[in-house]
Amino acid sequence: MQTKELAELTGVSVRTLHHYDTIGLLVPQKDDWNGYRIYSEKDVDKLQQILFFKELDFPLKKIKQILDDPNFDKEVALDLQRHLLLEKKERIEAMLTTLDQTIKNEKGEITMTNKEKFTGFDFSSNPYEEEAKKLWGDKVVEKANKKVTNMTEKDQNALKESFDAEFRHLASVRNSNPESEEAQQAVAHFFHYLNDTHGNIYSLEAFANLGEMYVADERFTKNIDQFGEGLSAFLKEAMHIYAKNN
User: Fold this and answer.
1) Domain of 39: which CATH number?
2) Is residue 151 part of a domain?
3) Which of 32, 38, 141, 231 is the most exposed place for a label (fewest CB within 10 A)?
């Protein structure tokens, strides 16, 4: 399909499709003869993914990062989107109830407390984005674990020793500022170590998400903090800074 046809099919404006192309979010083939944008079936499916994530309040930059991630799994994404849309539905229904109650309150039929007036509102964070972070972080960890499981016992023991040495080194800088050159050099070494060990499966985004899991998952926290108290919290911040700066 050409741009106008896709716009008519989806309701997304031509201008928006051109913008998606410009920022590299949805880049169709160009007709060699006339330069028109030509959208394939794969592009149409990708646009559907973009719109699902957009409906869940993901910024375009984050959507691009997710779709470009080599660990992106469309089937997993669809299951996640369904789950999160149901959560959003529940929030909207709660807000509609609050709205109905507010109308009654204005008419003098009921009296609402101040707390009741804000039932259903939540601006503290984007729970959908946090869920996706955790999910794709988990996917990378599963992939890494699978690789380790297929190793011989001798290789697994050697890997454990090298991992322990890596975490001992990280623990030695845990009391420094996570933004310091010393801390960032250690974290950079860790990033390259993980990819050298597991076959380049960690993007910068996945690396930052892994740091989040070090604190969010008690199993990670317990194992990591045995090398030094507070190491998991330090790594979460330092890994996020490294990913952002690179």
Assistant:
1) 1.10.1660.10
2) yes
3) 32
